[in-house]
Fold this sequence. Notes:
The chain is mainly beta. The strands form 13 sheets. Strands 10, 11, 13, 14, 16, 17 and 18 form a seven-stranded antiparallel β-sheet that branches. A five-stranded antiparallel β-sheet has the order 4-3-6-7-9.
Amino acid sequence: MVLMNRPLRKRLPFSALAIAAAVSLPACGGGSRGSALPEPAPASSSAPASYTGALADTKFTITIPLPKTGSAAARSPQYVSASTTQLRFTLVSATAPGLSTAGQINSFNTTNLGVKAVTLGNTNASGANCPGSGPWTCTIPVRLPPGTDNVRISAENSSNVVYAEQQQTFSVVAGSQNNLTTVLDANVNTMTLNVTSGFCSGTYNVVNSGTVATVGTQTVSVQAAYKDSAGNVIPTNAPGRPVLTVNGHTDDNGGGGYSDPGNLNVKVTQSTQSFSLQKTDGTGSASVAVTVAPPNTNSSPNDGLSFATTPGTTNFTLTSGSAVGSNFLADAELILDGNANPTGGVIHFWTINGTGFHAGSPSSLTATPVAGPANSDVDFPNDLLFDGNSDLLIANGGSGSPDFGNFSCVPAGSITTGANNATVLSNGTLDDPTHLAFSDPRTPANGGFSGDSSVALTNSAAGTYAEVQFVLNGTYTAAPTSRDIVRSGNGGGISVVAVPASATNPSGSYAVSTYDGPSRTSKVEIIHPDGSIAAITDPLIAHAVLAWDATNNELIVASDGRSLPTSDYTKSNIQLWRVNPVSKASGNIATNTDDGGVSPPVGPIAASATGGTTYVAVQVLGGSEELNVYTSNGTTLTQVGKSLDYGASDCASGGGSNPNYYYGGSSVNQNIITALRFLGATNTLLVALESEQGAPPNLTRTTANGMYLYDVSQTPSQPQTGARGCDAIDDVPLGTPTINQTFFQVMSNRVLGAAYKP
């Protein structure tokens, strides 16, 4: 058994108790080692009431090492429960004359054996003598009769709750040195099954009667985890671990696994207390039943152990679905009440083809609370992306204590099967994350960034961290804080994009727009994985939104100039920047609308990645919120046709002073375009528009609220539908814009983000 120094006694991790016993015996009767457990003989009225024969002074020497961490812990997992305070020795049967009845054995146990106290760091002549500061060598005096003795040894607490136990037959030979060994079997109270899907989910707990999803024939690995009745962890690779059984199987069948109903292949590995599952047909469902039992480590017929509370059987269903298909869209929606207060969120799935938006199957990903609603995987989704495995990455918002938001990742198989498994991550630095970027490991020629599969998120709420990163190392885990951006004065993050790997910018670099508070001093920086920063400095950069131009290999920086303590519209412009190394590629490009006047680019912003002409779409603020589309040659932007005006009133119903409906809430200064996204390497632009009517508490979304698709390279072939646009100043319909609206999908919620898989 393994102990620590005394101050840490109550914090010891639990495992099966391994005992190496050195027994010294004076000359007395003999015996031989037995392999079967003798049953006590029936009581005899003529037998003596107590044992009067010879006794051998034996000494169990128990080594309890200090706890270790990391891989060392895996190699030497022999720990004792943190709650163990005593060892109980009980003679079950013996071959010595005078120990043939139950009454004689009970009398012997009362007189000679029983409880031995365990107090680490103490000298205790009558109990477990464990001096020093650890590792400890505990010596325990036990008097046993010579011969074949069957002894039960239990590790307990002061209330006699058993944490580990073994019952074994020992051969005690008189007049010789007896070295006896045994292993205490762990008394499992609870079992948890942790699934590794092979995708972003990493590990998550299986819910009894729940569903575990995979894609095709992808193997799912499951790790069992155990605790005793005091809540101490039992290492799964320790001697004395339980026997793990999956669908009646306890091994891997020579590496080939077992074929179960539902085309399920099952392999069990006892040494690691784990198992693997594979749907060999790549589709459908199969049932899985998992149990554990005492191991009888020393091959005796009965180790005397019965689990204190039977963990029972964990039943779940393994479901295999197809990979996320092409032309697949996921949107992030915020659910609002009549006062425009958020009440929750949902993610809907769509397939987009030549006839428009088509609801996916399943049609949505609903919230799955993980340790409470503050850690739900989908409660207030703000932004979405797909990673290289088609896992769905979510910037999941939260307004503050207790819900500060998180980074969630839903594995691809959970999307297509509707299982809703997700990893919910928060490293204490997230506070209402609103935008995310993925450092795609594909090469730029294949649509990637030669990245490192990391994820960067911006925190919109004022706090220490304006940008936070996670790295995919088998699973997504929090990156070193050197990869995070700290802002002084309760600053926040605005926008983030991944930057391709180059001689100047290592793989995993990001361009991030932030501000310091309360002065709201704006910064745009390229942060590298080692924490070094390349600043993009210009006096006209103010509260910027960012986009990446993959064709010209440039960063697009759009500053609105208004989100400052005092608005300064002279800082309203768009700039183009090279980043390898940092240098400005353009002058300050002014943004105008058909309404005239100052038109700050308030964002959002998006750039196409077609490998040909770069199109840049950005929301600008004129008399109302409007959409401008430009082409870029790397040094200048040229506007495509007219601005698409989403006016703040209904042109058909009588004027801006008393509109039938308006966009973006009660103020025309709010961003009414809530998301922009080019769909893959195409000229197709998705615009999410917020459109509302009425007034609180009866504010509702109009039939113009929803998602629009435009082919920005084509002139219209049909009249514009939905929110066609009107001039918010004089309520006169604008001329037909020169970008082609192809499809529209009305939505009942506010759409904040979208992810698209080509």
